């Protein structure tokens, strides 16, 4: 989603953008396919996963080798793969790498091997930057953004009165705690999202559903925005340190106050006018936060989204970083032809993610 939004926004601003991704990606944003599928899609036997791993490894190895001979002004690496950062010093052009997750062994290894002075490292939150600090310092923190137009502001909640929870239905998202908290608050909970862990759903969620806790399914965007916008508050229950938390930004854009576990980047997004933080993994604390959130002004929630979560702000920050990186590369490179002057329509960027 991040790569798609960034590529689309840059193209609208007049930049020439090529996205290197799998063949299942949206061709409308200028995709050059580097593989048929990725390891994330691989399921089944160990052999099948090994084959997928090799395909992904070969795809990135081929891409990085090919980029040495391309004339892009800058590369933006949004992937979670180790090869782009490990091979960054082989590129004639500068690179920006965005860290979207906490550290894990493969990407950590690649960053430790990265000797490139032309690779700027960005974290999507200060929380992520802190988690990666033992591996590499970050050059910038650029919070993710959303298309505010897709999450319209509602100045009033639905008269029926309900709370909302939405996201992937998996254990680490903590839906079972939201159900408990909503019952203590005394308002019905509407739940939206795909069931990605059948065992968790069948054992921890389905038995807890009823007239006051209803799973409405995996909704299309328009229906989801309508559901979220009509809620009196959004209960956010991550059981791990969320690197950012797009659902929080989306709820705020709709004008919906947030009650959330104080984990990861969520305390960076919320302030006292738009959200209330709860003790992690404590549904009683979440219920108290939810009750307090009901009194918050929906206009303050929207203003917070406009100030902190707007995709245009995010793209402005990346454009500025691209310019700095290209400028530094020009200062240190006398043997390579200077890249085009930076103005709208001049830069050529490659993103992969």
Structure description:
There is one protein chain. This protein has 353 residues and is α/β, with parallel strands linked by helices. The chain has 2 domains: 2-145 and 310-352, 3-Layer(aba) Sandwich (Rossmann fold); 148-308, Rossmann fold. It contains 13 helices and 13 strands. It has helices at residues 2-12, 46-67, 82-86, 105-112, 126-132, 175-185, 198-205, 221-229, 246-253, 266-269, 283-293, 298-308, 311-332, and strands at 16-22, 31-35, 74-77, 95-99, 119-123, 140-141, 163-166, 189-192, 213-217, 233-236, 258-261, 275-278, 348-352. The strands form 2 sheets. Strands 2-1-13-3-4-5-6 form a 7-stranded parallel beta sheet. A 6-stranded parallel beta sheet has the order 9-8-7-10-11-12, with helices on both faces. Helix 1 (2-12) crosses helix 13, helix 6 crosses helix 11 (283-293) and helix 9 crosses helix 12. The model is unreliable at 39-43 and 334-347 (pLDDT under 50).
Mean of residue pLDDT values: 89
What structural class do helix, strand and pairing data support?
alpha/beta
Q: What is the tally of beta strands? A: 13
The CATH topology of the largest domain comes to Rossmann fold
The major pleated sheet works out as:
7 strands, parallel
Strand order of the largest sheet: 2-1-13-3-4-5-6
